[in-house]
Automatic annotation (TrEMBL), chain A:
<protein>
    <submittedName>
        <fullName>Phenylacetate-CoA oxygenase subunit PaaI</fullName>
    </submittedName>
</protein>
<dbReference type="InterPro" id="IPR007814">
    <property type="entry name" value="PaaA_PaaC"/>
</dbReference>
<dbReference type="GO" id="GO:0005829">
    <property type="term" value="C:cytosol"/>
</dbReference>
<dbReference type="InterPro" id="IPR011882">
    <property type="entry name" value="PaaC"/>
</dbReference>
<dbReference type="InterPro" id="IPR052703">
    <property type="entry name" value="Aromatic_CoA_ox/epox"/>
</dbReference>
<dbReference type="InterPro" id="IPR012347">
    <property type="entry name" value="Ferritin-like"/>
</dbReference>
<dbReference type="InterPro" id="IPR009078">
    <property type="entry name" value="Ferritin-like_SF"/>
</dbReference>
<dbReference type="Pfam" id="PF05138">
    <property type="entry name" value="PaaA_PaaC"/>
</dbReference>
<dbReference type="GO" id="GO:0010124">
    <property type="term" value="P:phenylacetate catabolic process"/>
</dbReference>
From TrEMBL, chain B:
<dbReference type="InterPro" id="IPR012347">
    <property type="entry name" value="Ferritin-like"/>
</dbReference>
<dbReference type="GO" id="GO:0005829">
    <property type="term" value="C:cytosol"/>
</dbReference>
<dbReference type="Pfam" id="PF05138">
    <property type="entry name" value="PaaA_PaaC"/>
</dbReference>
<dbReference type="InterPro" id="IPR007814">
    <property type="entry name" value="PaaA_PaaC"/>
</dbReference>
<dbReference type="GO" id="GO:0010124">
    <property type="term" value="P:phenylacetate catabolic process"/>
</dbReference>
<dbReference type="InterPro" id="IPR052703">
    <property type="entry name" value="Aromatic_CoA_ox/epox"/>
</dbReference>
<dbReference type="InterPro" id="IPR009078">
    <property type="entry name" value="Ferritin-like_SF"/>
</dbReference>
<dbReference type="GO" id="GO:0097266">
    <property type="term" value="F:phenylacetyl-CoA 1,2-epoxidase activity"/>
</dbReference>
<keyword id="KW-0560">Oxidoreductase</keyword>
C-alpha cells in the first residue's frame, strides 16, 4: 500500500502540472509557445498515465487510470503544492515549470537504477523530457529576468510567489520513505545539490536571487491543498462524473 | 482546418498581356511558381489572402477545440486532443511561413486578423457545447478541410502546395480520430448517443457551408481556377463531401438533419436540401454567436503576451551587444 501511495503522489504531480500547462493552449504569448505548451503538457500527462496505471495494478481493486484521475477529491489528491499553483502570468508558469523539472530531472536520473522495472521504464523516458523542460523554461526565465524592466519585475514577482513551495519537493512522505528504503524510488532529499546547481546557474544569468523563505509551504502529500486545486478538479472531472460507467 | 472558397479575393491585375500570357503558359504546363518568380500582382494578392485566411483558420480553430482540453473525459482523450490542437497550431505556423515568402509578415497578418480585415473560416464562429462536438469537428470539419486541401496539394504556388502535402496527412488523422470519438458515443449510453446526434444536428449545415457559395454565386472562382490555385468548384467539393459522409453517419446510426438528403441513382450521388445562405452570410459578416469572442480571445492572448515578446527581443539585443563588446 505504501508503494501505491508513493506512486500516486508522483502521478498526481505530473497530472496536475500537465493540466495547468494545458490551460495555456491557444492563449500563449506567441504561436511558438502555443506549440511548446501542449508539448510539455503531453509529456507530463503521459508520465501520469503510466504511473496511474501502475498504481491501479498495485492497489489491485481494478481502478483504471481514469478512475484515479477523475474520481478522487481534493483531499485525496497527493500532489505537492507547487504544481497546483495557478498559471498567473507567463513568468509564473515558466518558473513553476523550471522548479519542477529541475527537481524531476535528477530524480528520474537516479530512478534509472530503481529496483522496480516500471519505474525504470518511466525514468528512461521522463529524464529526457525533463531536460527539455529545464532548457525551455530556463531560457524563458533568463530572457524575462534579463529582458525589459517590466519582464524583470514580473520574474522577480514570480520568484517571490513560488520560492516558498520549493522545499516541499525535497520532503518524502512516509509512503515515499518506504519506497526509498526499498530502493524503488530515489531519496528526495538527495536531489538538492543537482537542483541548486541548475537553479543557481539560471538565476545568475537571469539576474535573480533566491529569497529567504520565512514559511515554506507544505501539506500536499497529506491532501492539504490551496483552494485553487478544487476548482481545477471540478472542471477536469465534471464530464466523467456526470456519466458514471460510460466509455469515452 | 481550412476555410471555404476564399472570401473576397481580388484577382484583378494590370500587367501586360504578353507577361500574363507567359505566366499562364507556365501554369498550363503545370510548372510550380516559386516565391522569387515573376508573377502577376493579382496572383500574389490572391495567394496572400488565401494562405493568410487559411493560417488564421488554423489558429482561431484552436479555440473551439481548446475549449474542451481541460474537460476531456479521459486522460487518453485529453492527450489526443492536446496533440490535435497542437497540430493545428503547427499548421498555422507553417502557413504563415508560406505566406511570408510572398512578402507579408506574420505580424501584419496577425494585425489584420485582430482588426477584422482578414477573415478566417466561419465554421469556428460556432461554439463547442458538448464533448461530442470535439468528435464532430474532427469528423466533419477536418473532413471538409481534407476535401478542400487535397486538390491544394497540386496548387500552382510551390510553397503552398508543399505545405498542404504535410498538412493533409495530419488532417486525415484528425478526421479518423474524430470519427472514432463519435462512434464511441454513438455506441455508448443513450445520453451519449443523444449527445452525438445533437452535435451532428448543429454542425452538419455549417460544415456544408464551409465549401462556400454555390458555383453560380461564387465571384472569384474563375480566375483562381485558371491560375490553378483552385482545382474544383465549391459545389463539386461539397458533393464529394456529402457522398463520403452520409454513409458514415448511417453506419453510426445517426441521421443527418436534412429530410431531402437522398441517394440519387442517376447522378450517382446524394441530393441535399437547400442551404440557408442567409445564415452563412450572417456568420461570415460577424453575426455568429462566437465571432466577437474568438477575436476577443486572440487579441487578449496577443496583448497579454506583448511584454513577453518585448522581453525576448530586448534580451536578444542585450546578448548581441555583449557579444560585440567581448569581441
Ligand atoms: Fe489544420
Ligand atoms: Fe485538423
Amino acid at each position: 500500500m505504501a508503494l501505491y501511495q508513493a506512486i500516486l503522489e508522483l502521478a498526481d504531480d505530473n497530472l496536475v502540472l500537465g493540466h495547468r500547462v494545458s490551460e495555456w493552449c491557444g492563449h500563449a504569448p506567441l504561436l511558438e509557445e502555443d506549440l511548446a505548451m501542449p508539448n510539455m503538457a503531453l509529456d507530463l500527462i503521459g508520465t501520469a498515465r503510466t504511473l496511474y496505471d501502475y498504481a491501479g495494478k498495485l492497489e489491485g481493486k481494478g481502478q483504471s487510470e481514469d478512475d484515479m484521475a477523475y474520481l478522487r477529491d481534493e483531499r485525496e489528491y497527493r500532489n505537492c503544492l507547487l504544481v497546483e499553483r495557478r498559471n498567473d502570468d507567463f513568468a509564473h508558469t515558466m518558473l513553476r515549470q523550471l522548479y519542477f523539472a529541475a527537481f524531476m530531472k535528477p530524480f528520474w536520473d537516479a530512478a534509472a537504477n530503481s529496483s522496480d522495472e516500471v519505474i525504470r521504464g518511466v525514468a528512461g523516458k521522463a529524464v529526457k523530457e525533463m531536460a527539455y523542460h529545464i532548457r525551455h523554461a530556463g531560457e524563458w526565465v533568463i530572457r524575462l529576468g534579463d529582458g525589459t524592466e517590466e519582464s524583470a519585475a514580473r520574474m522577480k514577482d514570480a520568484v517571490q510567489a513560488l520560492a516558498m513551495y520549493v522545499d516541499e519537493l525535497f520532503v518524502s512522505s512516509a509512503a515515499a520513505a518506504e519506497a526509498e528504503a526499498a530502493g524503488i524510488l530515489p531519496k528526495r532529499a538527495d536531489m538538492r545539490p543537482a537542483f541548486d546547481a541548475v537553479i543557481n546557474h539560471i538565476f545568475a544569468e537571469a539576474m535573480l536571487t533566491t529569497p529567504e523563505v520565512a514559511y515554506p509551504q507544505t501539506g500536499g502529500r497529506d491532501g492539504l491543498h490551496g483552494e485553487d486545486l478544487g476548482h481545477m478538479l471540478s472542471v477536469m472531472q465534471a464530464l466523467y462524473r456526470a456519466h458514471p460507467g460510460a466509455s469515452w | 482546418m481550412y476555410s471555404q472558397g476564399l472570401i473576397g479575393a481580388d484577382g484583378s491585375t494590370d500587367e501586360s498581356q504578353d507577361f500574363l500570357d507567359r505566366f499562364q503558359a507556365r501554369i498550363d504546363a503545370e510548372e510550380k511558381i516559386e516565391p522569387t518568380d515573376a508573377m502577376p500582382e493579382g496572383y500574389r494578392r490572391t495567394l496572400v489572402r488565401q494562405i493568410g485566411q487559411h493560417a488564421h483558420s488554423e489558429i482561431v480553430g484552436m479555440l473551439p477545440e481548446g475549449n474542451w482540453i481541460t474537460r476531456a473525459p479521459t486522460l487518453r482523450r485529453k492527450a489526443a486532443l492536446l496533440a490535435k490542437v497542437q497540430d493545428e497550431g503547427g499548421h498555422g505556423l507553417y502557413l504563415y511561413s508560406a505566406a511570408e515568402t510572398l512578402g507579408v509578415s506574420r505580424e501584419e497578418m496577425t494585425e489584420e486578423l485582430h482588426s477584422g480585415k482578414a477573415k478566417y473560416s466561419s465554421i469556428f464562429n460556432y461554439p463547442t457545447l458538448s464533448w461530442a462536438d470535439i468528435g464532430t469537428i474532427g469528423w466533419l470539419v477536418d473532413g471538409a478541410a481534407i476535401m478542400n486541401q487535397i486538390p491544394l496539394c497540386r496548387c500552382s504556388f510551390g510553397p503552398y502546395a508543399r505545405a498542404m502535402i504535410r498538412v493533409c496527412k495530419e488532417e486525415s488523422f484528425h478526421q479518423r480520430q474524430g470519427y472514432e470519438i463519435v462512434m464511441t458515443l454513438a455506441r455508448g449510453t443513450p445520453e451519449q448517443k443523444a449527445m452525438a446526434q445533437d452535435s451532428l444536428n448543429r454542425w452538419w449545415w455549417p460544415a456544408l457551408m464551409m465549401f462556400g457559395p454555390h458555383d453560380a454565386d461564387s465571384e472569384h472562382s474563375d480566375q483562381s481556377m485558371k491560375w490553378k490555385i483552385k482545382r474544383f468548384s465549391n459545389d463539386e467539393l461539397r458533393q464529394k463531401f456529402i457522398d463520403a459522409t452520409v454513409p458514415q453517419a448511417e453506419f453510426l446510426g445517426l441521421t443527418v438533419p436534412d429530410a431531402d438528403c437522398k441517394w440519387n441513382e442517376e447522378k450517382g450521388g446524394y441530393d441535399h436540401g437547400p442551404i440557408d445562405w442567409s445564415e452563412f452570410w450572417r456568420v461570415v459578416k460577424g453575426g455568429g454567436v462566437m465571432n466577437r469572442d474568438r477575436i476577443r480571445d486572440r487579441k487578449a492572448a496577443w496583448e497579454k503576451g506583448e511584454w513577453v515578446r518585448d522581453a525576448a527581443l530586448a534580451h536578444a539585443e542585450k546578448r548581441r551587444a555583449r557579444k560585440m563588446a567581448a569581441e
